[in-house]
Write a structure and sequence with these properties.
Strand content: over 45%
Oligomer: single chain
CATH class: Mainly Beta
Order of helices and strands: EEEEEEEEEEEEEE
CATH architecture: Beta Barrel
Strand order of the largest sheet: 1-2-3-4-5-6-7-10-11-14
Number of helices: 0
Shape: globular
CATH topology: Porin
Number of strands: 14
Distance between the termini: 46 Å
CATH superfamily: Porin
Helix content: under 10%
């Protein structure tokens, strides 16, 4: 559990504010090849709310996140992970929701390793965006926010040619079903699909 306080104004909160956060997790491993956990997290903090006046008003916004995750090994080289995420956000007497369902597949062929994901997400607003960690190339970090309604896929391949030479290839695709454009201004994409491509090469001396 965390307790925090801000003595001055900050982004989206134009008054001194406070808040708290707590998290609880229950883990269960019925066998060596299966592990399950369920988790709940709640965060409450002060935030601006819409007002018909020129005076900034604030209220306490509360977000609750729920996870259920299952890891299971099908074969020595094949591992699967299934996860469901759900969230609610309540502020100014209004409650919105968001969710994401994910299926990961990991295959280890020795020199070649493959990781893939298929995810469905549906969120009513940005406050219910779903953060999900994604595996990436060496020394890279990926934690995108799933926002809106759509499908997110990625595949990551790692190939070790030798002890000194390694390659990584990553392709990610987000397809939105609730918009015809992605982003705004100079970052705008004309269409509802966004693709990301990465290639990395490592040579050890």
């Amino acid at each position: 559990m965390d307790l925090f306080q801000f003595p001055w104004l900050k982004f989206r909160t134009y008054t001194p504010s406070w808040g708290y956060e707590w998290l609880a997790r229950l883990s269960y491993q019925p066998s060596k090849i299966i592990s399950v956990y369920a988790q709940i997290r709640q965060e409450s903090k002060v935030r601006n709310v819409n007002s018909d006046t020129n005076i900034y008003l604030t209220d306490i916004g509360t977000k609750r996140n729920y996870w259920i995750n299952c890891d299971y090994t099908i074969a020595p080289k094949l591992r699967l992970k299934t996860r469901g995420q759900f969230s609610t956000y309540h502020i100014n007497d209004v409650t919105t929701t968001g969710m994401a369902i994910l299926q990961d597949v990991s295959i280890d062929f020795g020199k070649l390793k493959l990781v893939g994901r298929y995810a469905l997400f549906d969120t009513e607003d940005y406050d219910n965006r779903q953060y999900v960690y994604e595996q990436d190339v060496l020394l890279a970090y990926s934690l995108p926010a799933y926002y809106g309604t759509g499908i997110r896929n990625f595949i990551l391949a790692e190939y070790k040619l030798s002890k000194k030479v390694s390659f990584w290839f990553r392709f990610a695709r987000t397809h939105y079903t609730d918009r015809k454009e992605i982003g705004s201004s100079s970052d705008m994409i004309a269409g509802n699909t966004k693709n990301d491509l990465k290639f990395q090469f490592q040579l050890k001396f």
